[in-house]
Every structure is written in C-alpha cells, then in structure tokens.
Amino acid sequence: MCKPSASVTGEPELAPTDKWIEKLDLAAFTADIQALGDKFSSCQGADDVRHLNKMISWSNSFLVVGLATMWYTPNPMTALCLSFYTLSRWTMIAHHTCHGGYDKVHPAKGRFNRFKFGVGSLFCRMRDWLDWMVPEAWNVEHNNRHHYCLSELDDPDLVENNLKEVREMDIPMAMKYLVVVINAMMWKWVYYAPNTYKELKIAHYRRQGIPLPKGVDPQDAVTIKSIILGQNPFYSVQELVSKVLGPYLVIHFFLLPLPYLFLGHHRGVESLYFMNAIKNLFMAEILTNAHSFLIVVTNHAGDDMYRFKNSCRPYSGSFYLRQIIASVDFSMGNDYVDFFHGWLNYQIEHHLWPNLSMLSYQKSAPSVEAICNKHGVPYIKENVFLRLKKTTDIMVGKTSMRVFPEAYERKFLDLDMKMEEERKREKEAKRAANAAKKIR
Fold first, then answer.
1. Distances (CA, A) of 38 to 31, 315, 364, 425
2. For residues 283 and 281, what is the distance between their CA atoms, to the nearest angstrom?
3. DSSP string, 367-434
4. Taking CA 151 as the corner, what is the angle to CA 148 and CA 155, rounded to the nearest 5 degrees?
5. Helix (H, G, I), strand (E, B), or coil: what is residue 321?
6. Other C-beta atoms lying within 10 Å of the C-beta of residue 68
7. What is the predicted pLDDT for the residue at 226?
8. Which among 147, 133, 158, 54 is positioned nearest to 350, based on CA atoms?
9. Residue 3 has pLDDT above 50, yes or no
10. For residue 169, is pLDDT > 70?
11. Which of 116, 73, 80 is nearest to 274 (CA)?
12. Radius of gyration (C-alpha) of the chain in whole angstroms
C-alpha cells in the first residue's frame, strides 16, 4: 500500500535532513528519556560528592602551581595552570553546583547549593567563584533564560542572532573570521559579563512589574560600545565596573600578585616579581577566554543544529527533543578528557536534566545515545575543533542553522498538551483509587 504524500496528509514536504521528524513517536521517546532521567536522579549519592571533590582538588592543584610560579618570568606553564583553574572553577564546579546538581547529596548544604554557591555577598563570590560574571546574573541568564528558551529568539546565547551584525558586515570573509578570533580572546568581559548582568536587570524589572524602557528589545545583546556611549538602558558604565567587572579586575590582577611586590623588594629586585605575575595572569586571561570560547560557544551552533520559533513547556516531549537536536556533545569518556573539556562535552545530557551531577552525565551519555538511535533522533557527538569550525561559519554568515519545520513544531506542542492531560488523568485516577482504599 502506498504511503500518503505530504500534500495528502496536510503536512509539509520535509528536507532530506529532516525526514526523521515525521517518523518520530514523540510519546515513546519522551517516556524513555524521562525514565532514564528518573533513574539517574534517584541514584545520586556519595559517589557524586566524591567525584566533585576530586575535580575540585584537580582544579585547586592547577591554582597552587600557578600561584607558586607566577613570579617567574612569563611562561606558558604558569599561564596554562592559572587558565585551567579559572575555567574549571566556572564550567565544572560553579556550573553544576549552581544548577543544583549537588543540592540533595552534598553534606555542605550551606555552600554547595544552587541558592548559596557564590551568591549573596562579595565574600561568597570570592570564596566560591570569582570571575568576570556576577554569579546571580549568570544564574538568571544561563540557568533560566538559556536552558528553558534553548535556540529560540529568547535564548540570550543564540549565536546566530547575537552575531547578526558580523554576519551582515559588508567586509571580506577573512576579516569576519579575524573579528571572531579577536573576540574569542576577550569575550567573557566584553560580551558575557555585560549581557548576563543585563538579564539580571531585566529579571528585576519583571519581578517589580516595571516595564522595559521604550523601544528596547530584550533580545538585543549589550555591547561595550553601547555602554561607553551611554546607549545602554539597563545600567551605566559606573555600575558595570563597580558591581560586575571591578571586583574581579582588582582582586585577580592586583591584589592576588601583590605579595610578590613585597617579596621583590625584600629580595632586591623591586617590582620584577610583581610585574612577572601580572604578565602571567594576563596571558592566562587570554588563554582561559580562548579555551572557554572553544568549549562554551560551540555547544549549540552549527549548520546541523536546529532553532525554533515557539516556546515549549519545560520537561515536555518538545523540550526533551530540543535539548538533543540543538545541542552537541564532544569527545568524552574519562575524567581526564572530560576535565579539559570543562565537562561541557556532555551538553546534551546536561540540557536534558540540568540538575544532575557531572558523574551522572558521564554515566548516562551512552544510554542517551542509545535512546536517540532507537527513535531515529539525531545525536551529534564530534571533536570540539570540528564544532569550532562549524560555529565560526555561523558567526561570519557562511552557513546558517536549521529551522525546525513550524508545522511539526506546532504538532509536537499539541502532543505535549495531550500527554500532559493524560498524565493529569492518571494522577487523578491513582488519587481516587488510594482514597477508595482508605475508606475500605
């Protein structure tokens, strides 16, 4: 019997790369993903805490080596150690703690908790996670806006949208790539810190019921140029420096190497050790920006990644599907490989279940890939440098992301509603049955 054509069924003809969509059993796929997530959530415990402590010890070891040697002439070993510490403190320790990955299992509830880690005071920021970004701002921008609006226009990390100015520049392609390279070496303080703080300010407006300034599009990225020229409606240059960039700048680049100034005077070399330390810190800053650009910005960009028009309900079938087809994993499998990827090589698993531990992502990845293969859902895992090429091609406008077919987007959103109604009916039936047992 012939299969009805797309025109007969009323659904659009799909591109060859999208043919898998029409064959997907969303309900069965959702059930498998939810069951796997429940399994790993219930299994978290002491092993996850031990693994976290192991990663903290690795991270701190790089810090100790970097601090102990940064007085010496500027050298790559010191710069790399300081860079690895800064990176791992953010992408591994702060990242997964701020998502709640250790809320239920870590004995230090007053610190390794999503509502405690790095937030509340400058002291907590210094103790837990001192970086260009304010932890409270990053929690809003990343944990909320990015994770639950993934690859929609409301996603503040949608590379294709954020780089539209570069994509549309009327300059040679080689110059566009050069712009990307330069930005990669300073993107944390030029782009990420100002824009995470913007999202915090917008969240404040919404909580207070304050309308956004007239003519302001919250989807537009804040630029250093707009801040300096006074065109940023959310905060001033003074506020950005005093509350966001200033603490890290002063503490990291001046107070941290200050003991070497006194040591240099004591040893009769004046400020030599101090200046060497600052130079090593500066080199480390460039390295950690480039390293984080490589493993962070490449997670959701490429001509094989999808973007979406409409929002979806968290932890629905559409939500789970989007986390997979708009995310990419890198090489993985052991602590050494995963550490130098900042544990961002499990981006698919992390987006499916943001509040699990690093160890759980490592364990769950093979099962997630098996479920995707079972249901015909693309599961992309590639070398991070291949993903860098695909991401920069998006940035310069050489390629574009895939747009998920809107007809199927609406169809799946309707299925989400039906599945949610079915779950509610099942809960009501169980509740009624339990009540009847108590009466008997």
1. 11, 12, 11, 21
2. 5
3. HHHHHHHHHT----B--HHHHHHHHHHHHHTSS-PEEPPHHHHHHHHHHHHHHHHHHHHHHHHHHHHH
4. 60
5. helix
6. 11
7. 86
8. 147
9. no
10. yes
11. 73
12. 24
Q: Record the tokens describing residue 84, joined without a space.
A: 């690895």
Q: Cβ contacts of residue 380 below 8 Å, gap of 6+?
A: 304, 305, 328, 329
CA angle 96, 188, 164 (to 5 degrees): 105
Query: pLDDT (tens digit, 9 = 90+) per residue, 91-120?
Result: 999 999 999 999 999 999 999 999 999 999
- E strand or H helix that includes residue 177: helix 173-184
Structure tokens at 433: 């049955």
**The model's pTM:** 0.92
| Model confidence pLDDT, tens digit, residues 397-419 | 999 999 999 999 999 999 999 99
User: How many CB atoms are located within 10 Å of the residue 326 CB?
Assistant: 27
Q: Are 52 and 357 in contact (CB under 8 A)?
A: yes
Single-letter residue type at 173: M
Give the contacts of 51 (CB within 8 A, at least 6 positions apart): 357, 358, 359
